[in-house]
Design brief:
The chain crosses the membrane at residues 33-52, 72-100, 238-259, 265-285, 297-317, 339-360, 380-397. The chain is α+β, with helices and mostly antiparallel strands and 439 residues long. The chain has helices spanning 33-62, 67-83, 85-99, 169-183, 194-197, 205-213, 231-235, 238-256, 261-287, 291-319, 329-338, 340-359, 369-397, 401-437, and strands at residues 9-14, 23-28, 101-107, 110-116, 120-126, 131-137, 151-156, 159-163. The radius of gyration is 28 Å and the shape is elongated.
Length: 439
Amino acid sequence: MIRKGIRPRIRPVIDWPFTGTAWRAVYPFRRHWPAIAIVLVLDAVFLVPAVGALREAVGGWAGFESLFDLVFAIFISAWLLGWSIAPLLLTMILVALLFGREVIVADRGRLRLFIGLPLIGIAADYDPSRMRNVRFERPPPKSGKSWRGAHLAFDYGANTGAFGSHLDPVAASGLRNRVEMVTGVSFGRGEAEPVDLAGQWEPNPILSAAADAGEAVDPLTEPAAPAEPQRESRLASLSSLALIAANLVPVAGTVFLGWRLSDVMVLYWAESAVIGIFNVIKIAMIGRWAALLAGPFFVGHFGGFMAVHFLFIYTLFVEGPRSDSAGDLTEVGRLFADLWPALVALAVSHGYSFFANFVARGEYRNRSIKDQMSDPYTRIVFMHLVLIFGGFVVLLLGESTPVLLVVIALKVAFDLRAHWREHGKQKKVTDAARDESDP
């Protein structure tokens, strides 16, 4: 949904009750005790496994001696991180049900509507001279505003707002008159001025500035781009060339440095970790405040997946299935140290693609957190299925350089295909959003 017109200034604030000459009215949320009891029970149910996992995680980190011990500690910590989102949310809901409130702060030429807990919450600052059609409303049951009960609604540019809760007509009229008196403004009526309807709400001004610095084309305001380039031009794009160049490093390592299958498999596992790190940044850019919950949840399930995945690769392709070793951590560290040039090249390649496509081309627009959280799995799972299949072929045929190079070539081909599909799909979404916004 694209919002237009003027917007309030919304930000987290500390609601200090001593506001000088400003007038304040506090409306505590109504306590729904059956709902509070249900949330309390659910919170306790989710907290019990979390406490047990925390004990195991602390014990795991306190005394790991092998790769298996380290993977267990990482996995249980990642599981705990993802699982903890549920009791954290339930606790936040419980606290809001018990102590939540709305605070109206009015002063000369200013109106602030605050929702949150005592002292901390989210505030929206409005210019009362641009508020119109303030009216008494009773929301229908089970609607998005039913928690307010009867309240005052108003128009602000092309959008609406509300303040007050569980008011009767007399109280609503008194609240309106008091706000008008304190602010020194009489609320307007009728249609908004054209200037109040102009412009679109930018999802994130910081990201917009980053895109402008990269001379990006705003997909919602600029003319349509040419048709999707053919494969030849996609292959010649800088991000595709950077991806190919980064994958030439393991080719050089295989030909000139004698890299084995185990080195290649560990390297591409590390590339998956790089993809996950950039995905956390993408989630933060898309979700902003919502990323405070979505980011740790992604790190939890992706971190657990990566830990078990590495143990699988190490057991099959580094130590071998017949080995009874639990994994020497010194050898694991040496394995990664020998691969650092290729790791840097892959990180630079994905970093360039991130800035050139996701930021500069504005791909963060029209993306949802849900889609972004699932994106890495689509690419990583199929990529590693190709690698594992190729790895078994190498084990059967012997670790000859030509066979290993074929596996690397298959991986590069899959990488390019996934890269083109990802950015091509995002281009279609952007084009559709632009067409929808055109008059």
